[in-house]
Structure formats: C-alpha cells, structure tokens
Fold each of these.
Amino acid sequence: MNGAVYYPRHVRGHLLEALHDSPAVVIHGPRQCGKTTLAQTLCAPEHLSRSGWEASGPSTGLEYAYITFDDDAARNAARADPAGFVADLPERVVLDEVQRVPALFAAIKLAIDRDRRPGRFVLTGSTNVLLMPALADSLAGRMQIVRLHPLSQAELARQGRVSEQTRPCPVFLDSLFGDGFAIASSERLGPQLRERIAAGGYPAALARPPGRRRARWYADYLDAVTQRDIKDIARIARTDVLPRLMEIAAAQTGRLFNVSSLAAPFQLSLPTIRDYLVLLERQFLLERLAPWHNRRLKRLVKTPKLHIDDTGLACALIGADPETLRADRGLLGQLAETFVYQELRRQSGWYHHPVKFFHYRDKDGAEVDIVIERAAGAVAGIEVKAGVTVTRADFRGLRKLASAAGERFVAGVVLYDGELNAGFGDRLRAVPVRRLWEPHPGIGP
C-alpha cells in the first residue's frame, strides 16, 4: 500500500447498506478521524490512490465524483450560488467537509425531492449535524447519518490486515447483552493500558512517535479546529479561550459536568462559557453523558458527566504521558473511564442493535460509570477500574442499578486490568479490560 498504514473501519458495511436505500448518507465525526479516506475508499478510490493509498475491501462499484470544500475555489463557488452548484453536480458525488457551506443543505434537499434515487450524495462533515437543527431538518427523512470516531482498539488490533476485512467485527456488546463471558484467564495489559490511553485513536497522531512529536500534532490539530472550523459555524469574539477551555475540560474528563468549575479561570459569563462548550461539542471534541433515569426513583443525581472524545487528545492537552499516569492513579482512573466509554461508543457504530449510553449516580454516592440501554429495553452496567484487583465492594453501584432496572437488567461488569474473568453474583462479572476488543475465549453463562 505504498507505505501507508491500513486501518479497517468496521462501519463500512453499514455505510454500504445505507447507500442502497438512502438518497444521502452523511458521515460525520471529528476532523482527521478518517472520514475522507473512508468515503474515498467506498466511492472514489481513484482519488485515494493519488494520496498514496490503495482501496481495499468492498466498495459501491459505482462511479462517484469527489469535491472537497477545503478547496477555496469549490467553497467559494458553492457559497455564491448553492442551487446552481448542486444542479451542475454529477449523478453521484462525494462532498467533503460540507459543513463549510451550510447553504448547500437546502439545495441538496430540493435536488433529492426531485430525484430520490438512493446513493446520490455522500456528505462528510466535521460538525455534528444532530446539534445543528437547521441543517438536520433540511435533510430529515432524506439522509442516514453515520458517526465515525477516531480508531477503536478493535480496529487498531487489525492494523494492516486487509485479508481480515470481511471477518466478523469483535463486539463486546454481543457478550454483554447476549452470549455472556466465559470463565477464562487473560494476560494483564499493565503498561500497555497506559500507553493505549495516551496514544488515542487519531490515525495521523498514531503515525508520529510517542512524546513530543505526537503532542505537537494534537496541539496543531486543536488550533486548526478552534481557529478555523469553529469560525465556519459561529461568530465568537474570543476564539483564544477555546484551547484553554479544552485543557480544563480534559482535566475533568470522567467527572460530573460543572459549568462553574469550567468557567472559573475566565472573566466570562456562565452563558458565554456554555455557548463555547456547545461549539466544542459540535466539533466532536467533548460530550456530555446523560444520567440514567427511572421514574420510580427520586434520589438519582441528574447531572451529566463530561467526557473528552479521545484520550490521546486529553493526555496531550494536560501534558500526561504513560509515566504520568503511572504516578497519578486518580488521573489514570478518570482517563481509563473515558477510554472504555469511547471504545464502547465506537463499537456501538457497528453493533447490530441501537443502544444509548448513560451514567448512574444516586444521592447516597453509589454510581456506575457507564449504563447501556438497548432499544428493546435491556439495561447493562459497566464499572471501570484501572487496578488489578476486584472486590465485592466494587459492585455496589451495579447492584443498585440492577435493583432499579429490575427485570430489564441483564449484566453488570467491572472491567479491570487483571487476569481472571469471574462471576461475583447473579449477572455480575469481573472481566479483564482487554476483552473489550479481543475475541472472547469461548462462550460462558
């Protein structure tokens, strides 16, 4: 592959399905997570080869034109006459970084209403369409949205293995909600866990050596997003605040969302900081994890949790490396929780059932780091420990969640960096964290 590193993207099967029944497919996710490469692999492989890559695996088999709005000429032409620009497009086209020309959405809507053949438009964007109602409403009922994340650990485990493209994707959620976990031993990750947390999942960052060069990439990346991309979607007076706000948010990942704490270093109003946080959410840099709720329970904490979208970015922002994480167990615990949450979010993109993510916390202090609710109503809980031992006390929050969810509760798992996969009571298990992305050795009860 001309020296380029190949990473299989497990959502590509879902994308191919969407192109067979949706007039427009939107691939959105953070800048530099691989959206362009994925779109070109599926639809415009000749453009991919010009960048030193070779397309591999299944594709549409159809001919798509490719236009990027990072190109000044294309962007200016589309802004000057959106309707005329869309009218002149080829039959099938990939429009890259389409959020840079928001006026195009209305023109694409009109084009689809005239011709609803599936697979006409593949749009990629580095802004969350679901958090921009005006854009989402324009294509409601006409598009399927596919979220692409930075690389998951499951995808990194298959790095360069083109021959494995058609093999089933490992999904921890299958075991959590269905097959169960076999009693088995696994080798500890040990220092590898800290290294994986610090590395993150951005392909371009992983191409650089750990340490100073990788941290430099993340700094340049954040600068590009906050100084250029956000200006495309909003007019704000203090773009200089955004990188510092991200640093503070990175230090609070895995904690309850507290706007006052985030705003404390700035001489800006709370509403202004809230607006800036929404902009960072729109760019997929951070997110709020909603609290799980139950109408029968009155003592649940209703504050969301804050998570940075990628632990590599978080570590770069706060100057943490694997050695820092070894020395600071509290910080390691926070980042391990975000690491597991983001891995599960990434795997949910190719899981065959819709799922929603929450956290659980009551006013007595019992908590569960991650609550996953499947569409049919089944509920499972994940507690994350960066240590090597698990005790019955670590299941306190999971037992409370089981009681609150009743018959809907299917499993409670403590993920830890130990060796043994073992039961701790009815539907409660301790599972080595590496089982998140590695095949399970058999099927257990």
Amino acid sequence: MPEYRVPYGKSYLTFALPDSLHVEWLAPAPVPPVPAATRAVNDALAAPLDFDWGKFAHARSAAIAINDKTRPVPLHLLLPPLLARLAQLGLADDAITLLIATGTHTPMPREEFGAVVPADILARYRVVSHDCDDAANLVFVGTTTRGTRVWANRDFMQADLRIAIGDIEPHQFMGFSGGVKSAAIGLTARETITHNHAMMLDPRAYQGRYDDNPVRQDVEEIGAMMRVDFALNPVIGETKQIVGVFAGHPVAVMRAGISLALKVYRVRVSGEFDLMIVSSGGHPKDINLYQGQKGLGHAIPVVKKGGTVILAAACPEGSGSKLYEEFMRGMTSHQQVLERFQREPFRLGYHKAWQIARDATKARLLLVTEMPRELTTRLLLTRCDTLDDALAVALRDLPRDARVGIMPVGNVTVPVLTGER
C-alpha cells in the first residue's frame, strides 16, 4: 500500500492507504525558493512598490508590527535588512519599537519574545507585546464605512513611520493575510477586531477572495486610517522557505503578492471527496485548535455532504480560546451550537464554535490530536488516538468508488473545483 506523510506538531504522521482507492494529493505547488533569501529581501527594500523612502528622511521614530508565535513568519530573515534600511534613514536603535501583533490572542510574556524575535535584535531594540484590552494604550482613530470603530495601539500611532510585517497566504474568511493586517488586526482593540470579524458571516468572506471580501476591505480601510506606511511580506512555499518577497505601500504589496500566493496555494480538483485527510500544517499552525481549525475550514468546501474529514492537529496548547470553551458548555449537538450562535451577539471565540459546528454538520469529523479526551468531548469532537485509528473508522464506510484527498498543509491550501474561479 502507498505510504504518505503529513506534518503534525513538530514532527510527522505516516500512514498507508489501500491501492484500490483514488487518492489525490492537494498540496502547495513546488515553487522553488528564492536563491538567496537575504538578498531577495534587500532587493525588495531597495526598490519598494509605490513607496519612496525619501519621504521619511526626517522621520524620528518607527514602529514595526510583527506576528506572534502562532505565525511562521521568518523574522530572522526579514528584520535585519529592514532595520539596516531604517538605520540608513538615520533612525537610532532606541527610536524603533517592535510591536508583537497579538490581536485578541493572549499577550506574549517577555520570556517568550525570543520565540519570535532573534536574540541580537531583542537585545538592541524595544519589543512590546500588544494587549487588545489595554485601554490606556489604545487611541481612537475613527470609524470605517462598514461601521468598525477603530482603536489602535498608541505606540504604533505615535511613530513617524509605521510598518507591518507578515506573510501573504490564503485566510479562510479574510481572503488573504498580509499587507496592513498585522497592524490593522494585530494592533487594534477587541471591539475593533470583533466588529470586523463579524463580517465573516457574509458569503463573500471566503478564502482566496480579496477585492469584494468585506472583512478584508474593512481591514484595508482600518490600515489606511492607522496610516500603515509600509509592508514587508514574503510568500512562504511548501518547504517553509521564501518563494517571493514584496515591500512597499501595503496595497501595492498585496496586489503583487496575491498572484504568487495563488500560484503556490491554489489547487484545482475535479470533484468532491468522500474522505479528506487534512493536516493543519504542523507547528505553529496546529499549536491550538483555534489555529488548527483553519485546515478544516479550507478542506470542507470540497468534501461531499455526509463525507468524512480526518483533521490531524496536535494542539499542545489545547483549544486556544477560553471563550470557545465557555460557549460550548452545556452544548449537546452541533446543531444546538449553530442555533445558539444565531441567537447571541457575535463574539470572538464563539465564532470558532460556529465554524466547527458548521463544518461538522456537513461532514463527519474525526480529530487526531494531543488534546485531552475530556476536552474534546466537551467540544463535541470525536477524538482518535492515532491516525491509523481514524482511518480504520473512515475506510470502513467508504463507497467502492471513493475519492480520497490528502491536504498536508491545510491551513493555507485553497482547493478549488474545476470550473470555479
């Protein structure tokens, strides 16, 4: 029987499937990495898109939004060239602040900063973790045309030059990450993020969709109101190496980067699947279920109604959301979750319960995870100890002409049925 391997936590899971099955491998395209990553970053900084460094020749301070530990952004490759460019503008080390853009995630404690910021940079520059609930460090900058009241990080807003770093990849309802998002979501208030994310219920809020996606376009407006001047965004390939890097005005960066991101991450398939085996992509994309769920969200559009999804997500940090767990207290069915969600005001954390219930009412969900069985039971999830255990359940019920898909990097893969855009 053919053997396959998918990422799981910081390792891999290996499994075999019968020869008789029609199996399709849905993975990012093998786009080769740039020959020299540091040179590629320097080249992008030297010729930025729709941006003139000269306009900031007299800047006295800069703030840089960087992702937290849940995002695999190669800051060790991106930050040194960027900081060298800022030094050329005349900015001293103590005039530059790095802001860990946590959004509504728990603020990172200082002892964890080394997990995202290289040690030499951590020693030289001021690094602060954002707190979306710290009202004293939030300033009101206005309301978007979609009604989002924007409260933004004070340190970021006080800087003369405002920069966002993050990668460009598909996002299950934002359409794409990248551009202003690290600042416009990562450095704003819970109220701001909640109102923006509530638009995820709009059918246009969909993976790989940008121009008419209300969530993403609201983010673009938030970023403009926060005056995010500059974005530095790589596209990361299948091997977690940089396959392209873009720098300049955030909108220009998105326009240039999306085409490459789709070339890497969009996979065309000829039909829906009876069984989908999906890995969230390993660490840190499966650090908790809050992140790992995105693999399920990307897979479900090409799974047959009543089919089966095996989600492999280690989730060493559990659910990743106390509000998600709170919402699930007393729930006895996924349908009940959907009904309760419709009755209550939108809240971040609650939306994760809705996303999983939405998908679990379309297909049977089997979860291979390190999460304790007691927790998965409370979350109405069917936990399997091993991938082989999950396959034993799934294969038993497959029709003779079954189609089986494998998504090794589900959190960023965008499967599209042939004939769809």
Amino acid sequence: MGKHRIAAIVTLGTASALALSACGGSGFSSGSSAGASGSASASANTTPLTVLIGSSGDAETTAVKTAVAAWSQKSGIQANVVASSNLEQDAAKGFAAGKPADVLYTSPADLATWAKAGNMYAYGDTLSNASDFYAPLKQAFTYNGKFYCAPKDFSTLALVINTTMWQKAGLTSADIPTTWDQLDAVGQKIKAKGMVPLTFGPQIERVGVFMAQAGGSLVSSDGKTATVNSPENVAGLTEVQKLLKDGTAAYSNTLHNAGWGGEAFGKQYAVMTIEGNWITGAMQTDYKNVKYKVVELPQGKQKGTLEYTNCWGITAKSGNVGGAESLVQFLTSTDQQLAFAKAFGVMPSVQSAKAQWIKDNPSMAAFVNGADYAQNLPSMPGASQVITDFDQKLPSLATTDPKTILDAEQKNLQAAISNG
C-alpha cells in the first residue's frame, strides 16, 4: 500500500486506478481537446459489450460481474467483464488494434490522453442522472468543455486520529482541530508528550491539501493558465514547512521508513495522518487493534481537500455505444452504487446516495463530506510528469524556499497546458 496508492490509477478500493486529478476547469484541474461526442443518447443494438476493469480484488470483480450480468439479463445485451492486471497497457493494445473494450475504467489522466487521441466517446451529459454527480467529479471528467464519462465512485482525504494516543496526550474530542491554528496547538501538546503529532506522504497528492486550504489552485478557473506559484500556494507550502520544522509533522517515509501515511499511522508512529478512505481497509486487515476516528481536515483560509476518482469510459469505436450508455446508466444508479459500496467499500459518486451511505458508514462521514469542496490535481497530457517532478522536490521542503519549488513547477505546468 505504498506510493502506488498515490501515483498510480486507483479509486477507493480499486487498486487499478487511484486517479491523480482532473481535466475540468476549477480547483487543481484543467484540460482541453477533442474526441467523439454525442448530444443525445445513442440507440442500443444487440452487439455484445466488453467491460475492462482494474480490480482491487475478488470482492470488486464479483460485484461488477454480478451487476453487469443483471443488466444483461434485463437488456438482452451480452456483456463480458474482463479484470485486467495492467489496464492502461491492455487499453492501449485495444486502441492500437482498433478493437478496444466498449467500457473501461478511466482515470482523469487517461481520459485526457485518450480523448486527445480521439479514442473516447463523450456521453456524460446524455445521462438522466448527469446533474446528480458531485460537481468536482464532473469537472474531473470534463475535457474541452465536454463531460465525457460518468464518475464511478471516488475518495477524498481526511484527518485520521488515533484515539488512544490522543487520550494519552491529554486531549479530548473538544481538541480536535478545525483550523490550522488549532492543528499547530494540539501538535505542540502531542510533541510535548514525546509523540509525533501528524504524518503524511511527501507528495503533492497529500501536501496539496494545504495549498487548497490556503485558497490556492494549480490551474486557473478557465483551465488555461498555471497558477502554481500563487501567493495562496506559497502560504500553503509555508504552513507545511512550519509543521515540519516545528516537529509537529513528519513525512511518513522518515518514520521508520514507512511506505505511506497509513502504514506510519497503523504502526502508531504518529497520532494523526492525512489519508484517503482506502485506509479503512488497511486498518481492518493489518492494524485491527488500533482505534481511530476520521474527521474533516482543518481549514486554513477555507476548507480544502483533494479527491481521486475513475469514470466508466466509453470508447469511440465501440460497436454498441447505445448499449454501453445504458449499461453505465445502470451502474451509476443510486441503488447500484450503494450496492457497490457495501460490496467493496467505495463511496458513491452521486449526491442522492450520500445520506444512505453516511447512515451505513457513520464513522466515515468526513470523507464524503469533503466532496462538497474537494479539488482535483491537473491531468492534461504532460501533467503526470509535472506531478512526478513536484513529488521529487517536496521531500526537501523543510529546508527549501517554498516559492522556489513552486516557481519551477509553474513553468513546467504552463508548458503542459500549452501543449495539451
């Protein structure tokens, strides 16, 4: 559960696709280009469909196969689910051969690349539940002004607290931080007890929450200009630098070489961590005896978190686009998304499922509440290289001027936007 949880393509519980970001026009997102599109739902035919997924395990594969089989029985259209161990590679082979899967898990970054190449069909606005998806998720799959594909589920980042260690530090529920000042204050109290207050990975995929909380973004609202070195982003990184220098936060890899924040937290190297809802699986499997609580992240100038998602992409060369749209409509329905949530732990991408999901998962409410203000990392073609470069610079943040780091990535991201 190391960095592949951050930089590969996975959604919550979907080990094939922790998407890094978005192609829309606000927050940390951007994008532009072409691709096939439909202004109205296409007519279905009887041509069989192939559905390519990157699964987190048997539970997810079984759930998807069961749902697709139910739709097939109802629609009369045969559909075959293929679980891939390397979805990007298998998708690329299909595109190259001119015979891609009809429907496939698609990350924001892959959507940008595939849509630019004309491989994807833009159908998002034809869905009857198009307005039900959380706005940031729709932005994640909007490319060149087109809502390409329906978000299948999502995850956000929140603050996870070891309640036993919290009490040992002399803290109560009244001390749970909701602002940066409060985070600093409880950090000092925890540090005074000889414990590490907070840990998170040394990547923009985690550190970026502070930039969002400072009111920053990596891309302008119209998606045309990089805003990496804005005063707000400088303030966000400066806050992280302060935490690292004060010893009230530590990168997870500096704590007994932990592979990610969840490992450092699970092994109780730190009292708090910033992680996504996939951490619940790790806690249940590897750290069953650790008691914890999940709350929304403290705010700086505003509330802020990052989200990760995939969509049900439909390929432009599908022989049954209408059938594929019908299948996606079924898979993204409120009831079916709640069934997926129970089967393998994902958070539904539609707002109509929120109340029931919280009722079913009351201790995890902070994750889904973050959907209202979550931002996406940029994912236009070339953005992944910028993210990688960002991640190489952030480990030295404690001793490097934040603006120096941001200035370098400002130039890199603007080049990606211009070339996208």
